[in-house]
Amino acid sequence: xxxxxxxxxxxxxxxxxxxxxxxxxxxxxxxxxxxxxxxxxxxxxxxxxxxxxxxxxxxxxxxxxxxxxxxxxxxxxxxxxxxxxxxxxxxxxxxxxxxxxxxxxxxxxxxxxxxxxxxxxxxxxxxxxxxxxxxxxxxxxxxxxxxxxxxxxxxxxxxxxxxxxxxxxxxxxxxxxxxxxxxxxxxxxxxxxxxxxxxxxxxxxxxxxxxxxxxxxxxxxxxxxxxxxxxxxxxxxxxxxxxxxxxxxxxxxxxxxxxxxxxxxxxxxxxxxxxxxxxxxxxxxxxxxxxxxxxxxxxxxxxxxxxxxxxxxxxxxxxxxxxxxxxxx
Amino acid sequence: xxxxxxxxxxxxxxxxxxxxxxxxxxxxxxxxxxxxxxxxxxxxxxxxxxxxxxxxxxxxxxxxxxxxxxxxxxxxxxxxxxxxxxxxxxxxxxxxxxxxxxxxxxxxxxxxxxxxxxxxxxxxxxxxxxxxxxxxxxxxxxxxxxxxxxxxxxxxxxxxxxxxxxxxxxxxxxxxxxxxxxxxxxxxxxxxxxxxxxxxxxxxxxxxxxxxxxxxxxxxxxxxxxxxxxxxxxxxxxxxxxxxxxxxxxxxxxx
Lengths: 329, 255
Prior knowledge:
Chain A is an all-alpha fold and 329 residues long. In chain A, 76% of the residues lie in helices and 0% in strands. With 255 residues, chain B is of the alpha/beta class.
């Protein structure tokens, strides 16, 4: 327990530091004095506007989206007992992507900007329902197979939308959205996705005991009184809410959900339940750091968040795999 | 004391009758060895008795209440179950693995109470695991893992213990230890222990009762000394066998 608490404290400190940086760093750099003064009535209106209307919602979203990806990654790795499981496993994120792409493709997004995240959310829920009905039964494997089937269909739909894009501009918009970004996100996005993100995080966070018992396999977990059907449903619903909302607002952001649990797992003794909170915090920290990276790296065109996470995440993951190969034959 | 009764239990898997009309009853204080050849239906019977598989016909009563009427968590507080070749997918420290046996009584959040810690300590000691308590379960040898799993099953002190082949992979000393422990659990603590066992000599010496299964039928049900003889061995395994000696020096051998 001590180790988990200490790790939580460290991750909390890192998060606080990154959050402050995230408020200060950007096209216009802020000073800590401006940050503290932004709340006063006599503050510089432009600085206050940038901080409160741009940086703050962006930071809050980064924290929530990162937390959702980290926690759902940890939960799905626990559920499948497979260290390669990631938040997109159940088809939810490709569903969200398809929903958002439909909003862009149909032109709805131009008329009503929040159509993209709204249809994204709808897409995530449709995908989750499909996975649920296709993967009926008790086993975890069935659910995962159903998830990959649904994911395949959703990806095909996204490709179709790109294929059939009315003009190059729409295709460009779609591909840009698919790369994931937190740029230009407002409080509207926070208000829209926040409740779903928080609800999903809560649903996933209470799955710990069941995941612990599952490390002994499905039969033993059942013999210990774990209702596997309920656990499956809980994980699917939590993922649909959290990852669905995360993808709907931020686009496809890869590798955070895969990486975050791996970073903290050896530090807490590999027990699935004890991985959950540290992985949540690590996910939030990773995403916030990646978002800072997109703002700091000197490119004329802003580097997309999803591109950066995969670019940085892949070599790091290869390193982890190499280390894992030494530990477990 | 716990009463477990199965009546008219039938299980069909893939159009094959795995259990045919099995009626047995058992109660606390008994250590029942389930013997029989491969594919006799031992594992299926054990999972039906543990309430993990619903029989296609017939029912199982625990304390005169059908197993299907128990909530999973409530049932888990009364009985522990170990499947064949249990394994652990994460490199958990052994003491954490053993603690998983307390799952049905633990709250959703929070750590262990002093009582829980004492139970874990007792189970580790009883299964000779104190030297391994911090070791990752995935690095244990087969026999050590089997002991760790047994400790996991014993830690919550269940009234009914159903174990599928607890002796698989154990060296003679730990096999003997395990049989003695299961026997003690039944005789001294009044628990009901049902275990599938392939070592007929150990079953003969330590069990208080034998259930002999073949092709889904119960061929014999009774005290080992009175039930297990050359004729039963031949009927079960199609191999001539002889049973000699009595009490703690009794043994079963192939001819």
